[in-house]
Amino acid sequence: MSTQFTFRPRVPVFDANVRVGDLHYEPSACRNREQLLAEMDRHEIEKALIYHAHTEELSPVDGNLFLEEWLGDEGRLFPQWSIMPTAESMAQVQRLHDQGRVRNVRLHDTRGAGLPFRAWAYGPMLTWLSEKRIPLWIPVPDADADELATTLQAYPDLVTVLVGAHYLHALLVRPLLTALPNTYLELSRFEPLGEVEALCSEYGSERFVYGSWYDRYAMGPMLFYLHHTELNDTDLALICAGNLLRILQGEGQHD
C-alpha cells in the first residue's frame, strides 16, 4: 500500500506573500531564485509576489536592492517593494514607479521602526500611494489595530492587504473589513475552522487572497486547507489568484 501523499490545486495559484533572502540569524530555505521556482513547481504555484527578508529586519532601501537579483524574465516572480515614510525610502520607490516597476508596496514594520502608524507620520506616503493607486500590504502582527483602522479610514481610496492575521486576531478581522471596504485579508495564517467560509459568506470571496508567507511558513498548508473548505471553485479561483491579479492591475477598489 502506498503511503505517498499527493495534492494538486484545482485552480491557478498566485501566491500573494513570499519572503526571499536570508535573515541575519538563519539562511533562507531557498538560497536563490531557481530553488524558489522549484519549490513553487512542487506545489504547482504558477506565480508569486516576493519581498526581501532584509526589508523586514533592517532596511527597506537595502532590501529592495537585494530583491533585484531574485527577479527574472520568466514572468513568475513579481517584486513587492518595501517602503517607509523617510526621504530615502520614498525617493527609491518613486524612482522605481517612474520606471513603471511598482504595482504594490509593503509597509515596513511600524512597531519595529518606532513610528506609530498615524496620519501625522505617514500622511505624505499614504497620500502618494492613494493618488498613484498603488496597493499597500500591511503585516498585521507588526501593526496596531486601532492605528490601522483610524489612519486608513482617512484614505478611503487606498487599497490595502492585511497580511498574516491568525486566530489571535480573529476578533479584529470583521471590524477591520467593515470599517475599511477597500481592504483585503491575506490568509496565510487565518486558521480558525470554518471562518474562511463564514467570512466569504459575509463579505464576499472578493475580499480575500491566498498567501503562504513562505519561507516564514511552509508554502503548501494553507493552499491545501483552502482546497478542503466548502468553497466552490469559482470562489477558490478568486482567492487563489483572481483577486490578487485585479489588485495588481489597479482594479482593487470595491466602493
Biggest β-sheet: count, sense, barrel? 6 strands, parallel
Amino-to-carboxy terminus distance? 54 Å
Determine the number of helices (DSSP H or I, runs of at least 4 residues): 11
According to CATH, the homologous superfamily is Metal-dependent hydrolases
**Percent helix:** 40-55%
**Given the C-alpha coordinates, what overall shape results?**
globular
Q: Write out the strand line-up for the largest beta sheet, numbering strands in chain order.
A: 4-5-6-7-8-9
Describe this protein's structure.
The chain is of the alpha/beta class. It has helices at 33-43, 53-57, 60-67, 87-98, 110-113, 119-132, 145-152, 170-179, 195-203, 221-226, 233-248, and strands at 14-20, 47-52, 77-79, 81-83, 105-107, 136-139, 160-163, 183-186, 208-209. The longest helix has 16 residues, at 233-248.
Task: Summarize the model shown.
It contains 11 helices and 9 strands. The chain has 255 residues and is an alpha/beta fold.
